[in-house]
Design brief:
Protein name: FliM/FliN family flagellar motor switch protein
Distance between the termini: 45 Å
Organism: Faecalicatena faecalis
Order of helices and strands: HEEHEEHHEHEEHHHEHEEE
Number of strands: 11
Number of domains: 2
Keywords: Cell projection, Cilium, Flagellum
InterPro entries: FliN-like_C, FliN/MopA/SpaO
CATH topology of the largest domain: Chemotaxis protein chec
Strand content: 25-35%
CATH class of the largest domain: Alpha Beta
Radius of gyration: 28 Å
CATH architecture of the largest domain: 3-Layer(aba) Sandwich
Largest sheet: 7 strands, antiparallel
Length: 316
C-alpha cells in the first residue's frame, strides 16, 4: 500500500464521516463532531497495545460484485454508553446490556447507510455494506480471533475522535485489511515501485503527423472539506422514529425496603415485608433503571395495570 493509497483512503473516510456525524447528531439531539482520521499499518501484537481494554465492536462486510472486505469498528465503552443513553432519553452512560446493544446496532446501521450513500455518489458506483453483528469486546484475543476468522491480513488501523456536545468525547477505531482498496477501487503503486521498467530506446527520426495539436494540462482535484452542519432536535426525522421502535423493559414499583443479608436468608412463606410507602401512594414507573412517571395501580379484568398520573422525566 503506497503513500497515495493511504491518502486516497483517508480522503474517502473523511468524506464518509460528514454524513455519519450528521446522522448521529440527529439521533442524539446533540452535535456529534468528528476529528480527522489517522491511519497506520499494524500487527495483532501492536493492536493489543493501542486499543482500549473495554469497547463495543461492530463487524462490517463491505463488497462490490464478488470483491469483499471485512471491517471491525470499535468504540470506547464509555462513549458507546453515552451514545445509547442519549437516544434512549438519558444523559447518563448506560451499562452495556442487550437493550443498549440493540440501540447501538441501530445507530451504527443508520450511520453506515448515510456514509455509504456519500461514498457511492462520489465514486460513481455502488459499494455495499452489511452490518454483521455488534457485541462487547472482552479481550484483545477475542478481536484477534474475529480478524483471523474473517481472513483479515495486512491489517490497517484507522482511528478518530468523536465528541458529543456537552456530554463526552472518546475514540473510535476501525480495523480493516488492505482488501478494502480493491473494493473501493483504489489502485496501488507497489508494483510500479518494485518493478521499474527499463527505459525504452526511442527512434530519433521525426515524422510528419497530420492533424491539429492538442493542448495538455495537468489535472487538478478539489480537496475534501468537512463542513459543520447545524442540527437540532426539531430536525430529527423518520430515522430517529426507527430507533423509537426498539422495545424496552418497563417495571412498576409499589415500594421498597432494606434488609440485612440475614433477613433475606430467613425469608419464608407467610412472612410480611413492610414497604416504605403508605397504602394509596402512587407507584413508580421505571425504564432502564430510571424513574420516568408515577401512576395508580388498577385492576383490568384479571390483570394488574397502571394509570399514569404524573410524568416525572421525559427526554428525547
Amino acid at each position: 500500500m503506497g503513500r497515495l493509497d493511504f491518502e486516497s483512503l483517508i480522503e474517502l473516510l473523511k468524506l464518509a464521516l460528514v454524513p455519519a456525524g450528521s446522522t448521529m447528531t440527529m439521533l442524539f439531539g446533540r452535535k456529534a463532531v468528528m476529528s480527522e482520521p489517522e491511519i497506520q499499518r499494524v500487527t495483532f501484537e501492536e493492536l493489543k497495545t493501542i486499543l482500549p481494554e473495554s469497547c463495543v465492536a461492530a463487524g462490517i462486510r463491505m463488497y462490490r460484485g464478488e470483491t469483499e472486505s471485512r471491517e471491525i469498528f470499535l468504540v470506547e465503552e464509555v462513549l458507546a454508553g453515552y451514545a445509547a443513553g442519549l437516544v434512549m432519553g438519558s444523559n447518563k452512560a448506560q451499562l452495556i446490556d442487550d437493550i443498549v446493544l440493540s440501540t447501538l446496532k441501530e445507530i451504527t446501521a443508520q450511520s453506515l447507510e448515510s456514509a455509504k450513500e456519500a461514498v457511492t455518489e462520489f465514486l460513481g458506483y455502488e459499494v455495499q455494506e452489511d452490518l454483521l453483528g455488534l457485541k462487547r469486546m472482552e479481550s484483545e484475543a477475542q478481536l484477534e480471533s474475529w480478524c483471523r476468522e474473517a481472513g483479515m491480513q495486512e491489517l490497517l488501523l484507522v482511528s478518530w475522535e468523536m465528541e458529543i456536545q456537552d456530554t463526552v468525547a472518546g475514540r473510535i477505531y476501525c480495523v480493516l485489511s488492505e482488501q478494502i482498496l480493491k473494493v473501493l477501487g483504489i489502485g496501488s503503486n507497489r508494483e510500479l515501485e518494485n518493478n521499474k521498467a527499463e527505459p525504452v530506446q526511442r527512434d530519433s527520426r521525426t515524422y510528419d503527423r497530420p492533424g491539429r495539436m492538442v493542448k495538455v494540462k495537468e489535472a487538478g482535484f478539489p480537496e475534501f472539506k468537512a463542513e459543520d452542519m447545524e442540527e437540532t432536535v426539531d430536525d430529527i426525522d423518520e430515522r430517529r422514529e426507527k430507533i423509537q421502535e426498539i422495545t424496552l423493559g418497563v417495571s412498576v414499583q409499589i415500594g421498597s425496603m432494606e434488609c440485612t443479608v440475614q433477613d433475606i436468608l430467613n425469608l419464608e412463606e407467610g412472612r410480611v415485608l413492610m414497604l416504605d410507602k403508605q397504602a394509596g401512594s402512587p407507584a413508580d414507573i421505571v425504564v432502564n433503571g430510571e424513574l420516568i412517571a408515577k401512576g395508580d395501580i388498577v385492576v383490568m379484568g384479571e390483570q394488574f395495570a397502571t394509570r399514569i398520573t404524573e410524568i416525572v422525566n421525559r427526554k428525547g
